[in-house]
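Please, structure for the following, as tokens.
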Amino acid sequence: MVPKPTPKRFYGHGIPGVDLEKLFGKLIVIEGADGSGRSTQIARLVQWLEGCGHATVQVGLKRSTLVSEELERAKQGNILSHITMSLFYATDFADQLENIILPALKAGFMVLADRYIYTLMVRDLVRGMDEAWLKNVYGIALVPDAVFYLNVAPEQLVQRNFQKNHTLDYWESGMDVGLSRDMFDCFLQYQALVEKQFRRLQSTYGFTIVSGERSAEEINAELQEKIEGVLVGK
């Protein structure tokens, strides 16, 4: 199946000098919290797409060769201010957009993003940052061809994270927000706020909410069906 070209656009000011008409590939985003099954679904989608003859490229948070290591080291101290962390992630995203996403799309690749600007915006909104400022920062972002948010209840997420890692992450629990001194309780409250923001932004950015509380096979079948529609330009 040859992907049907569709017009590309940026959310805001974009990146200067980019000819949007020469971006022939597709950008597919999978959003969701840690434990929602994002990585599993992306691995399955890569296998499926490449089996259909599509070349793929994967991107995600903290994968920039420019700042990913520095960002990870800074996070380990648990002392980053909200603005500093936001700009760290924005730099990580911008570097991948300019040096991986746009060149891959120009070459006709299918780009699969393991989270995109929506996670970054939601995290910052929960921490009280200004939405207009965030929209301006991420005005450089390319509008994806499709965005799927794997929605899983916080109670399910906490169980999955314990089963996988035997602990909870400081940042994914929102401990810096100060909702509770108890990490378990803080995780539940924080993820509930994140889910609320995702649902609010859904009407603005038009991404598809997919139930992540089913089997991996059921979820993947739904994603494949929807992505097939994207490939033929529906």
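Residues 20-149+207-231 form a domain with the Rossmann fold fold (CATH 3.40.50.300). Residues 59 and 86 are 18 Å apart (CA to CA).
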